[in-house]
Specification:
Strand content: 15-25%
Number of domains: 2
Strand order of the largest sheet: 1-2-3
Structural class: alpha+beta
Number of strands: 8
Radius of gyration: 22 Å
Distance between the termini: 34 Å
Helix content: 10-25%
Low-confidence stretches: none
Largest sheet: 3 strands, mixed
Shape: globular
Amino acid sequence: MVTILRLISTRIRVTKDNGSLASLLATKEAYDRELLKQYDAQITVGFDSSIDQKLELAGRLRRRNMVFRCNAYAVDKSAPGSDAGKVMRDKVSEQINAIIRENRNLPYQILMNFSGLGYPSGDPHKAFAAGAATELIPSSPSWTELTNLEYVNIWYSDDVRYSKSASVNGQYGLMLFRFKIGAREQCVKKILLSFEGYGTAPVADGITAKVWNHEAEEWQVIA
């Protein structure tokens, strides 16, 4: 159940009729009408049934099929820009079916990005920028979190891009992307990082991507 909720929460994107992103909440089965005052829709996942089958006469080899129930709740709102309740439910249901279909073989893989995020936000995924002559540690006060307008520039892979430059001699532009994995560190087997962009400079062009090793307390080049 936790895997399904995490999969839906990290991948679902619903666009309202006015072009803005819908505010969605995915939880275990506990429908709360009060929550819909803050969100456009609530998604709940719960356990429905379990079927245990013998695959051999002695019963040593068995197969268990577990069925989960996923519900989408939305109500009609009078606020400007709100979709009708039925329209929102249909959009949410369509997205959930697509997510399950596309990820049914690898549900434990989590996609993390900055789509829909802004400043300030309680979300652990944050992006920062700075100009410096040396590499800054993640806790350096020189980092500045992106503004709402700047966050929009890193939402999607499109022609809208964010740019950071340094005009002081000897300095260069830096960006810091912070993600909270959410699982115990020892359970993570592999992290795949993808960056889209480029860098230019008077002497040489290009970028360098590094990952902070919190145990060694140093930046390390991605292999």
